[in-house]
Amino acid sequence: MLRNGLEPWHLIVVAIVVIVLFGSKKLPEAARGLGKSMRILKSEAKAMKNDDTPAGGTTTASATPTPEAITPTDVVTATEAQQPAPATGSVK
Questions:
Q1: What is the 3-state secondary structure (H, E, C) of 31-55?
Q2: Does residue 87 lie within any of the structural domains?
Q3: Residue 78, in any domain of the structure
């Protein structure tokens, strides 16, 4: 039944349907986006592979820098940010 499932004329029909559905103006844009995505995926996969094996056989103590400690006085809540500053004059 599916002995000759994908023949050249099937590909031609699929190409014609894609051109009719998406239009000839959108296809280069879509191909460019797909190529850019593939390059990003390839570079990220390569970076992950390089992260697994340290360069030169030496290990580092910490791969990521530690962030500075945040004290409770540094944190501003949304209600504090929206409240106006208190007036300096006396109220009668």
A1: HHHHHHHHHHHHHHHHHHHHHHCCH
A2: no
A3: no
Half-sphere exposure of 46 (CA within 13 A, CB side): 6
Place of tokens 């998406």: 22
Tens-of-pLDDT digits for all 92 residues of the chain?
456 677 888 889 998 998 888 887 888 888 899 999 999 999 999 999 888 766 555 555 555 555 566 665 655 665 555 666 666 665 55
| Domain extent at residue 43 | 24-54
Residue length, the chain?
92
> Into how many domains does the chain fold?
1
Amino acid at 50: N
Predicted TM-score of the model (pTM): 0.38
Domain contains 40: yes
Q: How far apart are CA 31 and CA 19, in angstroms?
A: 13
